[in-house]
Write a structure and sequence with these properties.
Elements (H helix, E strand, L loop, with lengths): L4 H9 L3 H23 L2 H18 L9 H20 L8 H14 L7 H19 L3 H12 L4 H8 L3 H24 L1
Length: 191
């Protein structure tokens, strides 16, 4: 039976590094998805996650069990991602040619049957590109709120706690972000 986050935190505080490693394994991929959603750059997201887990480890004694470890960690991830975004202020990542080929072949083999419909793959790629362009047009704060809500599925209260802002601010940012995304997606579906 898997140990709860609270038990793993307690063991980590007692010096059991394996327990913190389990927390990393439990939340590392999801934290990366949040960071990537904000930064839109793989290497930056990896840097932000590394910094986030180091900060979390060093600050574990400050973790108040009033919130879940998950919510506390994501606040650190979002803040680290925002900080890095402000520092770097660079264009989004371009995917190396070889990596693009690997991703295409993975998509081809993962669809039903051994060969996928090329027009379907093209539509999926175009939609993905449109979503990425729409995300690029959002502020870091708006990227954070839409990523936490739409990708991670956090409640307004959890987002509020993670971003340390009011639920009203979360709702306002989410409204703006969705409106912005809708504009891009409407243009995509018109074409």
């Amino acid at each position: 039976m898997a140990e709860t986050d609270a038990v793993l935190v307690e063991k980590s505080l007692e010096g059991d590094n394996e327990s913190f490693k389990l927390l990393f394994e439990r939340y590392g991929k999801r934290a990366y998805a949040v960071s990537y959603g904000i930064l839109q750059n793989s290497e930056d997201a990896k840097d932000a996650i590394q910094n986030s887990f180091i900060r979390a480890f060093r600050s574990l004694h400050r973790f108040r069990k009033a919130s879940s470890f998950y919510t506390w960690l994501y606040r650190i991830v979002v803040n680290a991602s925002i900080d890095l975004s402000r520092k770097r202020r660079r264009t989004p990542e371009t995917i190396p040619f070889e990596e693009g080929i690997q991703n295409s072949s993975t998509r081809l083999s993962s669809e039903k049957g051994s060969f996928a419909d090329p027009s379907n793959i093209c539509r999926q790629t175009e939609l993905s590109d449109t979503i990425q362009k729409a995300m690029e047009g959002l502020s870091v704060e708006h990227k954070a709120v839409i990523t936490l809500r739409e990708i991670e599925g956090l409640s307004y209260a959890e987002i509020s706690q993670s971003l340390e802002c009011s639920i009203g601010t979360v709702m306002s940012r989410l409204y703006y972000a969705r409106k912005h995304m809708k504009t891009y997606l409407e243009d995509y579906y018109k074409s």
